[in-house]
Amino acid sequence: MNLPNYFIADLPREHELTASLVTEACQTLKRNREKYLVGRATSSIVGVLSATAQSWLEHDNPFRKLALERGAAETGFGETTIARGLDSFFKQFTVENLNALIAQDLGHAERLDRFVNDRASGTAALARGPELLVHITAGNIPNPTILSIALGLLTRSAQLVKCARGTSLLPRLFAHSIYEVEPKLASCLEVVEWPGGTQALEDALFAETDCVTATGSDETLDAIRRRVPAHVRFLGYGHRLSFGYIATEALARFELKKTLLQAASDVVAWNQLGCLSPHLFYIEHGGVVSAERFSEMLAAQLAELESEEPRGQLPAAEAAVIAGKRSLYEVRAAASNATKLWKSEGSTAWTVIYEADPQFQLSCLNRFVYVKPVVDLTAALRQAETVRGKVSTVGLAAAGDKAQQFATQLARWGITRVCPLGKMQNPPLTWRHDGRPVLGDLVTWTDYES
């Protein structure tokens, strides 16, 4: 399947992207928004997004097939990893879930269509999105970029999505799939790709927009923020990390197999590269199996999943980092029983490190995970104090009232999302990214006092 040239990113390679072309594209997007998007009913946009997402769940969908065929070479993820990740993501794009997101963030499903009365205050309010919304994406996994596009359509914003070099394939395919369902909406969207920090292009871009969202390292966000004009809203999503906590009851004989599969699934999902992926698992003392034994069993589970969902090839530099880490821990394991290592043979496909020292440890990712014992959750949080304020998600394996108590303790410590183990990389559509309302951050309100 050949992609038609609807988007700047699809121009032939000999066409150099210039500042004037970026300016022209932004102005065209804003004109198309005025013609085709501003007056569109929310229910209509929701219907297009839902229909597009459902088409991606069909195995003969040409865009899905192209994503799987080209994805391994262009993203580094294996075909099965891409398929599972996209399926779990697009299954959530139902009319019900999209309406629930709007109602949650804006108070009413029609708040973007008309003034809606607030019974408590007696004031009516209408929410409106930016005229031109620019997304600067990190691109380590595709789902956040696709979600950003969907949110921009819901707020009736023209959008230019600037992808990191080599990461535009899946966002482009999603944009083309919207065109297949509703060409007029797709005409309000551009997907582009250029090296970050290309000043002439970005200056032209920032001069046309009234809202910029950016995802990346804290240093990257600071650099972008300094260049965005003062009158332009800037929404930055910096680097975050996550971990799992497994209580004793999740290690009981009838729960252990499920817990192991859930933990391994969180490591395997998107090759552990998302901010919601676990760097380590804390194992509560007193369970049927020790943290060391859990590590050994987790390694066996990762080996099994590798045969079903291969990680894929890594760039030489990333593979070298894993090999170096392994060598370090092999030396430590030879010197002390406080460290143990399990690894895939003949490849860097997966690695499990057990350490008796409970100090929080950052993983080099790509299915490289730590397991550490702790007395209780309080002790785990004490050991994670060095990353406090940077933790996005905790995957929790605990039961009933205890899970509720843990969730409250984690919330008060600063965690913005607590979810069941096994679902760390699959947040609901209504998830508040970094604890913030994803639609609510984009809109500006008009109050009407009658």
Describe the overall structure.
The chain is α/β, with parallel strands linked by helices and 450 residues long. The protein folds into two domains: 8-116 and 126-239, Aldehyde Dehydrogenase, Chain A, domain 1 (3-Layer(aba) Sandwich); 241-420, Aldehyde Dehydrogenase, Chain A, domain 2, CATH 3.40.309. 43% of the residues lie in helices and 18% in strands. The chain is built from 15 helices and 15 strands. The strands form three sheets. The chain has a seven-stranded mixed β-sheet with strand order 10-11-12-9-8-13-14, with helices on both faces. A five-stranded parallel β-sheet has the order 5-4-3-6-7, with helices on both faces. Helix 6 links the parallel strand 3 and strand 4. Helix 1 (19-36) packs parallel to helix 9 (199-208), helix 3 runs antiparallel to helix 7 (169-181) and helix 11 (253-268) packs across helix 12. The protein is globular and about 70 Å long. It starts with 18 loop residues before the first helix and ends with a strand.
Gist of the model:
Helix content is 43%, strand content 18%. The chain has 450 residues and is α/β, with parallel strands linked by helices. The strands form three sheets. Strands 10-11-12-9-8-13-14 form a seven-stranded mixed beta sheet, sandwiched between helices.
List keywords for this structure.
single chain, alpha/beta, Aldehyde Dehydrogenase, Chain A, domain 1, 2 domains, seven-stranded mixed sheet, five-stranded parallel sheet, 15 strands, 43% helix, globular, disordered N terminus
Classify the fold: give the CATH topology of the largest domain. Aldehyde Dehydrogenase, Chain A, domain 1
> How many helices does DSSP assign?
15
Shape assignment: globular
CA gyration radius, whole angstroms: 23 Å
Strand content: 15-25%
CATH superfamily of the largest domain: Aldehyde Dehydrogenase, Chain A, domain 1
* Mean pLDDT level: 93
Structural class: alpha/beta
Q: Write the CATH architecture name of the largest domain.
A: 3-Layer(aba) Sandwich
Biggest β-sheet: strands ordered side by side in the sheet: 10-11-12-9-8-13-14
Series of H and E elements? HHHHHEEEHEHHEHEHEEHEHHEEEHEHEE
Number of β-strand runs:
15
Number of domains: 2
Q: Share of helix among residues?
A: 40-55%
Main sheet summary: 7 strands, mixed
CATH class of the largest domain: Alpha Beta
The rounded distance between the terminal residues' Cα atoms is 55 Å
State the low-pLDDT regions, or none.
1-14
